[in-house]
Design goal:
This protein is of the alpha/beta class. Helices cover 35% and strands 17% of the residues. The strands form 2 sheets. The protein has a 6-stranded parallel beta sheet with strand order 3-2-1-7-8-9. Bound molecules: ligand BV8. The site of ligand BV8 has 38 residues, from helix 1.
């Protein structure tokens, strides 16, 4: 299982590349890379503060709940990896969610050698004076997010799951950002069945055996129902 921003769209969290997309107001290079944070930490914190405020009260929809129910039915046989940094899967009841690109409601020390672990943080920062410093080493604190040019989290566990799966179900992603966009090829090369759920063809559409056209809140519960039989 891999989800992208599209599964959060109907819960009111904007996607990156759609109409009113997240990137529309911002340039990726300006806000989602280590260089951007070095150059202007306040701008980056304003971007993520806006997203924290926007994601806080949002509720999961039937698609998220269908995945939580599937996890309850399949247990360890289901591996859910998300590219999303919001907490909608957890709010729907999913217990084992792998956030390969980090978590919006966590922060961490920006110093690569600091031992301070990522910590829960839902605070928003809009002024330079309010930017947080690490209690351990004094460096600036940053969002616990995988930015462009950084290595995503948990890649070994993800690869193990891809090489073991019979079905690779991908929901709501444009399929243009790697390595996530390449996961379906890894699963397919190993003989897994590959299914995509979303309203538009993803960039890696040719890698899918089946494209289930439509919004996740409607089509995903239908797909999950066929899996639970
Ligand atoms: C890395 C966290 C090295 C930040 C994100 C040239 C070619 C290929 C690759 C590269 C290249 N140049 C650079 C790269 C690498 C780069 C990359 O892929 N760039 C792209 C732009 C070309 N990748 C990286 O830098 C990655 N790191 O490569 O490290 C490495 C790797 C492996 C091993 C060793 C070393 C790190 C990338 C992570 C960046 N961080 N997110 C944040 O959230 O603020 S990326 C972000 O965009 C998402 O997390 C996601 O991964 C990505 C794509 O977003 P989507 O989720 O797909 O959302 P999008 O808006 O694009 O699409 C929405 C979809 O939903 C649409 O398809 C739409 O139809 C659908 N939808 C809409 N409504 C619904 C719906 N679906 C269902 N229901 C609905 N109702």
């Amino acid at each position: 299982m891999l989800t992208g921003a599209g599964i959060s769209a109907e819960s009111g969290i904007p996607t990156f590349r759609g109409v009113n997309g997240l990137w529309n107001g911002w340039r990726i290079e300006e806000v989602a890379s280590p260089r951007a944070f070095e150059r202007d930490p306040l701008l980056v914190w304003r971007f993520y503060s806006e997203r924290r405020a926007g994601a806080k009260g949002k509720e999961p929809h039937a698609g998220h709940h269908a995945l939580a129910d599937l996890e309850a039915a399949l247990g360890e046989r289901m591996f859910l990896c998300t590219q999303n940094v919001d907490h909608l899967h957890e709010r729907a009841g999913s217990r084992r969610v792998t956030h390969m690109h980090g978590r919006l409601f966590q922060s961490r020390c920006s110093h690569p050698a600091c031992t301070l672990a990522p910590f829960d943080d839902d605070r928003v920062y809009h002024e330079r004076e309010s930017l947080p410093n690490c209690p351990s080493c004094g460096s600036l604190v940053r969002p616990h997010i995988c930015w462009f040019g950084e290595v995503p989290f948990e890649l070994e566990r993800i690869e193990t799951a891809l090489l073991a799966c019979d079905l690779c179900l991908v929901v709501g992603t444009s399929g243009v950002v790697y390595p996530a966009a390449g996961f379906v090829e890894v699963a397919r090369a190993r003989g897994a069945r590959t299914v995509y759920v979303g309203p538009e063809e993803p960039g890696n559409a040719t890698a899918f055996d089946e494209l289930v056209h439509g919004p996740a809140s409607v089509r995903l519960p239908e797909v999950v129902a066929t899996l639970s039989r």
